[in-house]
Design brief:
The complex is a heterodimer of chains A (196) and B (258).
Chain A (H helix, E strand, L loop, with lengths): L2 H16 L6 H8 L3 H7 L3 H25 L5 H18 L1 H9 L7 H24 L7 H17 L9 H12 L17
Helix pairs in contact in A: 1-2, 1-4, 2-3, 4-5, 5-8, 5-9, 7-8
Chain B lengths: L41 H16 L6 H8 L3 H7 L4 H25 L4 H17 L2 H9 L1 H5 L5 H14 L9 H20 L10 H19 L1 H11 L21
Classes of the chains: A mainly alpha (196), B mainly alpha (258).
Chain lengths: 196, 258
């Protein structure tokens, strides 16, 4: 593991223990078994830059795991249903995230917002081949369809509203109505769909 | 100075406006303040003054002295009207602005004549209200964490529920209460998403683009909920193109949540 990654993991461990506000560069250095000077060499912006980097890294980890979960999906509906259920559960079970949201949510914002904006594009890109294969509704452009579905996914993962994403029937309904109704041309050939 | 967090949006906000609720007369007014003939209650002046201060210098830098000066009264008077201090003043400011926001939505949505128009009206007005709000824009620019932290994850769920409470009834002419709540929450979610994360070609302050979004994504979603009803409604107005009224691809409503 290179030094930069070691510092990130060490910082994350400190955040898990003390929270973001109470984690210092010294804490991270000590945990990583490195000198303060070394930490500052990799993160000249100090604590703020370090925290930003940890958030970015954890964001990548989260969506990397989501990608692994859905990459084998056979249909657009399956991608979305599996993705939503898995991602929502992952958010709820992410202890450090939940702790920060509880005690010091403002330290995550607006960093999380910036990351989310970037992630919409990544998710949209991932969905494109599935959308193409399924076929789009008339008058809908591919990039706007992908963008719409992607941003909706992010929204439900963090704030599902009245939806219970732990209930497969609700997830299927959500995908069918609020994600895909205007986007796709008709029922796909994937499993779990009601034929017309 | 300790960081004051704005009072978060809770489902308990009432629609009545703060203005006119209190009747405490102004006392110990400083010389450069409002003329004695002005009967505006102290509470109202303090809330208006606080909003003005926040719009100009943000929440963290706004002190009760600033607010008192702007309101044209003494600090003691402010404390008499708001024993809870700055927190209580902020709470009142948020209550007032949220009430104004939903009042404006109510006016727009109340005059719409079909479900497409009511959705366009609500979403457009919401976008205007949010992007055009001076104090909110200032906060989002300089102290974004104060606003965004109150509108993320579980807090966003609360905000969606609150919005739903106010806007769902306007869909009641076409949808049953459960359907109305679902669609209202969805529309709010869409507005928040496009405002928080702008996309090319989707400017929600442009009613034409809002209508396109509604027709493209929202109405079809509603049709999968209540295919027969909305199809008849819209078809009788001859508004939509034949393509959008092709055979409903998902006629079954099994597994629906009400």
């Amino acid at each position: 593991m290179d030094a930069r990654q070691r510092i990130l993991e060490a910082t994350y461990a400190c955040v898990a223990r003390f929270g973001v506000s109470k984690t210092t560069v010294e804490d991270a250095a000590r945990e990583a078994g490195l000198s303060r000077a070394t930490v500052y060499r990799y993160f000249p912006g100090g604590r703020d830059e370090l925290v930003d980097a940890v958030v970015s890294w954890q964001y990548l980890v989260f969506f990397g795991q989501l990608y692994e979960e859905v990459r084998g999906a056979a249909s657009l509906e399956e991608v979305l249903e599996r993705g939503l259920a898995y991602a929502r559960q992952a958010v709820l079970e992410h202890e450090v995230l939940q702790k920060i949201l509880d005690t010091e949510p403002e330290v995550l914002m607006p960093k999380l917002t910036v990351e989310s904006n970037r992630t919409v594009g990544l998710i949209a890109g991932f969905l494109v081949p599935y959308l193409v294969e399924h076929g789009l509704a008339e008058g809908v452009e591919l990039h706007e369809a992908a963008d719409f579905v992607a941003r909706m996914i992010l929204s439900y993962i963090s704030s599902p509203g009245h939806w219970d994403l732990g209930d497969p029937a609700q997830v299927a309904t959500l995908v069918r109505t609020e994600l895909l109704a205007g986007v796709v041309a008709g029922p796909g050939t994937g499993p779990g769909l009601t034929p017309p | 100075m300790r960081q004051i967090r704005p009072y978060c949006l809770t489902v308990g906000v009432r629609l009545e406006l703060v203005r006119g609720r209190a009747s405490a007369p102004a006392s110990a007014v400083s010389p450069e303040a409002l003329p004695a003939a002005d009967a505006t209650p102290v509470r109202t002046r303090v809330v208006d003054a606080a909003l003005d201060c926040i719009a100009r210098q943000g929440v963290a830098k706004t002190t009760l002295d600033d607010v008192a000066r702007r309101a044209g009264c003494s600090r003691a008077t402010v404390y008499r009207a708001f024993p809870g201090g700055k927190d209580a003043v902020l709470r009142a400011v948020v209550d007032t602005e949220v009430s104004r926001f939903f009042s404006a939505l109510a006016v727009r949505m109340g005059t719409a004549n079909d479900i497409e128009d009511v959705l366009v009206a609500g979403m457009h007005e919401a976008a205007l209200g949010i992007t055009g709000h001076r104090a909110l824009s200032r906060l989002l620019c300089h102290e974004p964490e104060t606003v965004l932290s109150q509108l993320a994850f579980a807090r966003m769920d609360e905000a969606l529920a609150l919005t739903c409470q106010f806007t769902a009834p306007f869909l009641g002419r076409w949808l049953d209460p459960a359907e109305s709540r679902r669609v209202a929450e969805w529309a709010a979610r869409i507005v928040v998403s496009y405002l928080a994360c702008p996309a090319d070609g989707v400017d929600l302050t442009d009613p034409v683009q809002v209508r396109r979004l509604v027709c493209l994504f929202v109405l079809p979603g509603i049709r999968t909920l209540v295919p027969a009803r909305t199809r008849t409604d819209a078809a009788s107005r001859g508004r939509s193109s034949p393509a959008t009224f092709a055979t409903d691809p998902y006629p079954s409503t099994e597994g629906e949540v009400s």
